[in-house]
Structures are given as structure tokens and as C-alpha cells.
Amino acid sequence: MSLRVDQDHARFKQIIRGKIRQNLRRFISKGELLGKQGKEVVSIPIPQIDIPRFRFTDKQGGGVSQGDGDPGDALGKPGEQPGTGEAGQGEGQHVLEVDVSLSDLAEILGEELALPNIEDKGKSKIASKRDRYVGLRKVGPNSLRHFRRTFRQALIRQISLGTYDGKKPVIIPVRDDLRYRSFKTEVEPVANAVILYMMDVSGSMGDEQKEIVRIESFWIDTWLRHQYQGLETRFIIHDAVAREVDRDTFFKTRESGGTMISSAYKLAADMIEQSYPLDEWNIYLFHFSDGDNWSVDDTLLCVNLMKEKLLPAANCFCYGQVESPYGSGQFIKDLDEHFKNDERVLTSEIKDRDAIVDSIKEFLGKGK
């Protein structure tokens, strides 16, 4: 019975995964999951799943094969006539809220977008401890008792003493036969990564553009947290000047004035140099803008900063250009012109929310 329950539960989880995959693009484009996010899980509304439920009542209360009734009679409440009531117009919906761990959600994202696992390039000085079983010993707690080796030892002892009867193969271990697993605690470095998000917050970046960035960064975080045991996230906003802020400020700030993208790139380069040794950290740079920059000279300064400081340090540099009615959209053209043969530079045009999925694929699809 227990095995059948486990099998049914596993099958139900597969159904849930299938439903999530079917609706994944809608979840991503609508941003529905961001408001349902907990610390380690996300609540997801899954449509068109009807969970069977059994209701038990008194044995004398009637029911199938009990009480009055003839074969073919409709089941229902006493006096209730089948087929009564007004006809409906819409399709029935059975919506179930299920909790899915962020790790499972990342796996589903990876399967749906065919994202490759990432090869980390560095090891952090932060270490984790792991217990590894390395042998056997004669003392230990019952939870670590090695039953097969214990009975093997008892069998060897009985055969050597001549007390083992092949016609009545009874093996009784004594204290000296007991064997326990022994373990050793190993300290190993943990692969770490840091994401530096940069965003233009000038007046041309409106609320809708920021919401697109917020949704996309949630899914980028989800995937990278699945790949690395330790992940730091830092945020830079810029107009004509750049500054580091917290997550809430990053997505809510809106300012006016000009845009100098180089100010963000300079700050990012300083943060990497001060806090993230290149041989110990996997560094990801994401910049979102509507494509406006102050001048051609500042664009050339950005290109030089990328070549000399940012690209040598980063696993990849991802630039997402969010379409805005006020932005010129020129910056992505400049990047494509200067870095068209550099696989470390990934660019994506994000016209609306429906383009978020393809943008994530463009950024993460190379496994950098």
C-alpha cells in the first residue's frame, strides 16, 4: 500500500510539472509568481486539475450498493432531480494552488528553455563541510550500523568455530561482530557567483520597462541560484551618475536628466576590483536600458571599459534593451558593432513582456 501511495504521489508531481511547463511562458510574461514567492518556495496556480476526494459517512446512511435503489438510478441528494438548473456559458475551471521549490522551478525553466548547466570558473574561500563515509569500525551509533557487514562477520566467525549449520542457516551476531560506518568530515570550497545588475533610471525608463526588468531578473536569479551554492546580487542604478542601491530602490527609482552609461560601468569595475577576486568568483553583469546614451564619446568610453576591465573579469556581459517610446535604441547597435565576434557579450532586444522568455534564453542559453 505504501509503495502504491508513493507511486501515485510521484505521478501527481509529474502531472504538476507538466502543467507548469505548459503555462510557463504565461507565468513569466505576466509576472504572476513574483507576488507568490516565499523564502524557498513559490505558490503556483495550476488550472484544470481536479483532485478526487472521498467523503465517509455513517454505514447506515445509504450509498452505492447500500439502501434502497435500483440499478441505473442517479446518485444525488434525496428529492434532487437530475438535469435541473440553468445552463452555464463558460468553461468550468478547477484551479489548485501548489507550492513548488525554487530549485524545482529552476529545473523546469532549464528543461523548457533547454538551458545548459554552467561550468564555474572559480572557487570561493568560503568553505562547506561534508561528511563522507570512508570505512568501518567496531563502535558507533545504531543509526550507522552496517547490517550486511555485521552479518558477514558473524558468518565468518561461526564458520571458523564450526558452529554454522548449513541445514539450519541461523546467523546470530554477537558484540564483536558489529560493524559501523565511519565517516570523515571534509572541508571543500563552495562555488560562488555574483550578479551585478545595472539599470538606466532616467525619465525614459517608465514603470512598464522596470517591471519587465524585475520579472526577467527574478528568473535569472532563480536559474543561477540553482547552479551555484552561493550567489550574491548587487544593484547599480544610473542616469548621468551611478550609485549602488538595494533591490527595492533598484526597481522603484525613477529620475530625470541625461544618461551616461559609462558611470555604471566604472562603478561595476570598481566593485569587482574591491570585492571579487577573479580566480574565486563567477561574475555576471546584466545591464538594462532603453538604448539612449549621452554622446558618442561616452559610448566609446563604455566600449573601452568593457574591453579593459569588465569582460576580462566576467563570465558574460548581458545587455538587455527594453523598448521605450522615448528611447533611441542606439546603444545595442553600437555594442553589436564593436563586439559582434565576442561570445562573452550577449545582447537582447526586449520589446514587451512576451519577449522576456526569449531574452532569458539568449542570455543563459550558452552556459557561460
Give the structure's gist in a few sentences.
With 368 residues, this protein is an alpha/beta fold. It has helices spanning 2-22, 24-30, 102-113, 147-161, 207-227, 247-252, 261-275, 296-313, 331-338, 356-364; strands at 41-46, 96-101, 127-137, 180-189, 192-200, 230-238, 242-245, 282-289, 316-322, 345-350.
Give me the secondary-structure category.
Answer: alpha/beta
- Tally of individual helices: 10
Distance between the termini: 46 Å
**What is the alpha-carbon Rg in Å?**
31 Å
- CATH superfamily annotation of the largest domain: von Willebrand factor, type A domain
**What's the average pLDDT?**
79
Point out poorly predicted stretches. none
Q: What oligomeric state is this?
A: single chain
Helix content: 25-40%
**CATH first level of the largest domain: which class?**
Alpha Beta
Count the E strands.
Answer: 10
Strand order across the biggest sheet?
7-6-5-8-9-10
Properties at a glance:
10 helices, Rossmann fold, single chain, two-stranded antiparallel ribbon, 368 residues, six-stranded mixed sheet
Task: Spell out the blueprint of helices and strands.
Layout: H1 2-22, H2 24-30, E1 41-46, E2 96-101, H3 102-113, E3 127-137, H4 147-161, E4 180-189, E5 192-200, H5 207-227, E6 230-238, E7 242-245, H6 247-252, H7 261-275, E8 282-289, H8 296-313, E9 316-322, H9 331-338, E10 345-350, H10 356-364
Parallel strand pairs: 5-6, 5-8, 8-9, 9-10
Antiparallel strand pairs: 1-2, 3-4, 6-7
